Amino acid sequence: MKKMLLLCGCLAVLTISCAKDKPAEPTPPKLIELKYNAAVEEGGIRIQFAAVTSDSRCPTGTQCSWAGNAEIVLELTGDGNQAAILNTNSQYQQSYRYNEYNITLKELKPHPEAGQQIDVNSYVAVLTIEK
Q1: Range of the domain at 108
Q2: What tens digit of pLDDT does each residue of 61-116 get?
Q3: Does residue 26 belong to any structural domain of this protein?
Q4: In a domain, 5, yes or no
Q5: Number of structural domains in the chain
Q6: Which pTM does this prediction carry?
Q7: What CA–CA distances, in Å, run from 107 to 69, 77, 88, 95?
Q8: Residue 96 forms part of a structural domain
């Protein structure tokens, strides 16, 4: 009986110590919609949607030989200041690493429509931020 109790005690200690060694679950990316010229603070960094440098995405209602691309600039402030240039087209840079964070442009709204000009103030960058 004493051996059985000792064995159960050892198993309990082993189980507890193994549970402590498990790596922490990764936190899911945080989705942020950031309006043009607006800023957000996340984890000690400030992200500002500073500019849309180009938008050649294929407008809705037209046929294009390629999907096009929109390029934006994010001003990052925290441990130093940096500018991140991100694109909607996967052929170009869509993510930027700043400090411990990976910032990715998922979408730029609104999508162009044939015959309509987009007012720069109506742009919204959809970003994910993950540590």
Answers
A1: 35-130
A2: 899 999 999 999 999 999 889 999 999 999 999 999 999 999 999 999 999 999 99
A3: no
A4: no
A5: 1
A6: 0.79
A7: 11, 22, 6, 12
A8: yes
